[in-house]
């Protein structure tokens, strides 16, 4: 006879794994717990009955292609198959995490979808998932991102050892952490330098943080001066900070909408002969990189200092191509 203690452990173990997005193979479970498959089937039936009685937004289904039982979410508050597919595509393109971490997250997202659609999504993203390439730093950042986020919420000053690219010895930094932002393959910490009197946001690549220590000291920022990630994102390009400036430029390309999408603070001031005059508020360093990437489609008018920098860079580029 199956003891109640053994049965309780077995059922809780299966339920825990189902909740975690994993599948239950009846034959394997019977072998692991040294019971018959009919016993495992009764356990699964009890789990199914509990889900229905508790009115949870989950349903226990048998996935024939995998020969396992899985939980499928059925509530309206859950992600749809279309939403899951879109999120998975975005995640793969981001290359934000290690391949093993990304694969685990994708599998758990797919498990949300109805069982008969899971294999369909897996087949769609099979090649992309298989060919996923880790970034060169090959670091797991999930725990570090969480620790930084906790320090931000608690407004705790942190001490980090930061290793810049090309350097052999990390530099110690004492910072007021403001936000963690993801942009173009990397996670970034936005922070104020605690040793500098003027609060200017500084950008640090999270994967270059060698060590993090949360200090006991707290920092305070007046509510009206609080850092707002959304407003920061509107004004920064390629996560390159610098002084905040207002600029004017003429756009001569075919899609002004692409400019408005790239620069959320931009406004079209006027239009003449398919040339658009734009104004925008941006941080200086990153915007220069974007402006140069547009080639002859953009002419910077103001500020004059930025226009002169662009001219100087173009002249330097010409020197690179003077001789073959």
TrEMBL record:
<feature type="domain" description="WCX">
    <location>
        <begin position="263"/>
        <end position="317"/>
    </location>
</feature>
<protein>
    <submittedName>
        <fullName>WYL domain-containing protein</fullName>
    </submittedName>
</protein>
<dbReference type="InterPro" id="IPR051534">
    <property type="entry name" value="CBASS_pafABC_assoc_protein"/>
</dbReference>
<dbReference type="InterPro" id="IPR057727">
    <property type="entry name" value="WCX_dom"/>
</dbReference>
<dbReference type="InterPro" id="IPR026881">
    <property type="entry name" value="WYL_dom"/>
</dbReference>
<dbReference type="Pfam" id="PF25583">
    <property type="entry name" value="WCX"/>
</dbReference>
<feature type="domain" description="WYL">
    <location>
        <begin position="147"/>
        <end position="213"/>
    </location>
</feature>
<dbReference type="Pfam" id="PF13280">
    <property type="entry name" value="WYL"/>
</dbReference>
């Amino acid at each position: 006879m199956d003891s109640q203690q053994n049965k309780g452990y077995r059922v809780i173990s299966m339920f825990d794994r189902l909740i975690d997005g994993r599948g239950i193979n009846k034959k394997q479970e019977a072998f692991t717990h040294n019971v018959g498959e009919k016993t495992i089937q009764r356990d699964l039936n009890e789990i199914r009955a509990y889900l229905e009685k508790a009115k949870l937004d989950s349903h226990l289904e048998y996935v024939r292609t995998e020969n396992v039982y899985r939980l499928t979410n059925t509530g309206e508050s859950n992600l749809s198959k279309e939403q899951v597919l879109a999120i998975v595509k975005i995640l793969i393109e981001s290359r934000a995490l290690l391949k093993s971490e990304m694969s685990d997250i994708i599998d758990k997202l797919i498990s949300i979808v109805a069982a008969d659609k899971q294999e369909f999504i897996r087949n769609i993203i099979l090649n992309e998932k298989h060919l996923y390439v880790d970034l060169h730093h090959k670091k797991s950042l999930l725990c570090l991102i969480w620790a930084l986020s906790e320090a931000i919420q608690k407004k705790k000053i942190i001490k980090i050892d930061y290793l810049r690219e090309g350097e052999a010895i990390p530099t110690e930094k004492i910072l007021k952490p403001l936000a963690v932002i993801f942009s173009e393959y990397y996670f970034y910490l936005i922070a104020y330098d605690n040793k500098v009197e003027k609060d200017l946001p500084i950008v640090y690549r999270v994967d270059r943080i060698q060590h993090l220590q949360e200090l006991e000291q707290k920092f305070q920022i007046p509510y009206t001066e609080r850092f707002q990630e959304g407003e920061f994102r509107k004004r920064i390009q390629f996560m390159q900070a610098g002084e905040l400036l207002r600029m004017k430029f003429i756009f001569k390309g075919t899609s002004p909408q692409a400019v408005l999408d790239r620069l959320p603070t931009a406004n079209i001031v006027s239009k003449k002969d398919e040339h658009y005059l734009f104004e925008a508020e941006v941080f200086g360093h990153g915007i220069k990189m974007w402006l140069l990437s547009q080639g002859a489609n953009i002419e910077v008018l103001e500020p004059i200092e930025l226009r002169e920098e662009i001219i100087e860079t173009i002249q330097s580029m010409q020197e690179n191509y003077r001789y073959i």
